[in-house]
Amino acid sequence: MGSSSELPCFFFFFYLLLLLLFAPVSCSRSQRSCDTTDFNALQGFVEGLESSALGWSFNGSSSSNCCTWFGISCDLGSVSVKRVIGLDLSNKSLKGSVSSSLGGLDQLKELNLSCNSLNGSVPEELFHLPHLELLDLSMNMLSGLIPAESNLPSIRVFNISVNSFSGTHPILAESSNLSVYDVSLNSFSGPVDTGICNSSDSVQVLRFSANMLSGDFPAGFGNCSSLSELSLDANGLPRTLPDDLFTLSSLTKLSLQGNSLSGIVSTNIRNLSNLVHIDISSNNFSGVIPNVFDSLNKLEFFSASSNELTGGLPPCLSNCSRLATISLRNNSLMGTIDLNFTALPMLNSPRIASNFFSGCIPADLPKCTQMTTLSLSRNNLVSEIPSSFKNFTSLYYLSLTGNNFSNLFLALQILQNLPNLRNLILSTNFHGGESMPEGIKGFTNTEVFVIANCALTGSIPLWLANLTKLKVLDISWNHLTGMIPLWLGNLDNLFYLDISSNLLTGEIPTSLTLIKSLANSNLSQENVASQYYPFVILTNSTGRSQEYKLYSNFRSSIILSNNKLVGSILPGFNGLVNLHVLDLNFNDISGTIYTRLVGHVKLRELGFIAQLSHRCHTTLFE
């Protein structure tokens, strides 16, 4: 009797065990189902691609588990049919068009197709997905028009930047949750519509940069009370800035460079107390820089270059202790460089070239221990380089060209042991009849060395032979005499040599035809030059004014023109397979131009071949 009473318990536990064993299987089967509409939408999307390595399988029915496919996420709230709510195929080398079938994913919350090679227009269906919160089509080759009145009521992030869309930029009038709106680097035209700020009080980022927008700079951005970034670069917008722009107390980045904005820089900018980044460069602003930076103590980046600003540096810039970059080049600023650099410990890139600053270089500049780039070129600075510059241990790039500095020997003695100095440009200084210094021992890490147009006398100094990392050497437009030294050909990394417009004599040494960086076919121009030297030399019609600018295709060159060299063209120049420019004009070189030299592919690409018979003046990189 006792055993029979235990049978119901036995069957109960046996039944419970079966439930436990088969419950996961049952759950797994339910997860395999895929909504038919979603399945068909995904299949239509793949059919619009030129090729697909996504690994999605459409061989079975819609019961295939599309929720496990790469790049797809599904709603986890349902235990039966799953709905696709996320599609992330960013940076997957996709090519082809965007199919309108994606509009069938009516539960989609996130769609990210960025960083691919998709082309053609975007179907209107994508701009009417009611649950879509993130749309990222950036960095493709998409084009065409976008519906002006897109219906995306749930959208938070809208990014279609770096494409070729045209027409008016889309207005998301009913998107009350919008936070990020980026239509930069397209071809949108017409006025800037600030209606976005009326639709959503959550907007934090607005980017309209690099389009063809027109009309006055609009009022209305002041209604974006939560705005932290506003970028309208490179659009050509005219007139002055509206007053309501200066009510955006939460703004951290304001980037307006490359427009046609004019007027004075408003003192109301002090109200933007959270600003970290200001760029108003390449506009038509005039007047003085307002002395209100004591209210902008979070500022890290300030650029007002290429405007029509006058006056001096506002002393309160010294209160911006976080300031890392200040660029004021190409204005009409004047006076002394009178800032308390001791109070600017984070400053690493002051660029105040092409102004009318006068006086001496401040001795406390090296107190900026993070400084890597210093450009003071084309001003009216005088005297000697401060001895404190020997403490510039972090300095990588120094340009003092186009001033009135004196005592080149002292300058080189001070700078010679800076461990990180790679680029030194001192052209158009030292015009007091100085000679090329001898006995310098440092600069062992220097790769760009330029002392052109300084009227220096003497000969090419032997200590330059120790600069084994040198890639650019320009000592042109001086009064150097003697012969071209043989050791120049031993500078294995040299790819730009300009010793033109001196008084050099003798024959061209054969060692110049053996420079490894120019002769080794395994060293492409990109490997030799572009990796470290984004410079191009611009020379005016007289050949005397040189400017070094950022550029990615620095032409490898040997420029020996306008000297008193004799002899003939060396046949060894044929072997310099990486050479782009060979300039031998205005010398007493005779002989024939070798057939192989005339057929030199890279020289012909530049369109320049030494012409012995015409003696025409040649200007490079003008």
UniProtKB/TrEMBL annotation:
Gene Ontology terms: cellular component: plasma membrane
Domain Leucine-rich repeat-containing N-terminal plant-type: 37-75
Pfam families reported for this sequence: LRR_1, LRR_8, LRRNT_2
Gene3D superfamilies, alphabetized: Ribonuclease Inhibitor (3.80.10.10)
Signal peptide: 1-27
Primary subcellular site in the record, as a coarse category: membrane
Keywords (A to Z) from UniProt: Cell membrane, Glycoprotein, Leucine-rich repeat, Membrane, Receptor, Repeat, Signal, Transmembrane, Transmembrane helix
Membrane topology: Single-pass membrane protein
Protein location: Cell membrane; Membrane
Family that this chain belongs to: Belongs to the RLP family.
Protein name stated in the entry: Phytosulfokine receptor 1-like
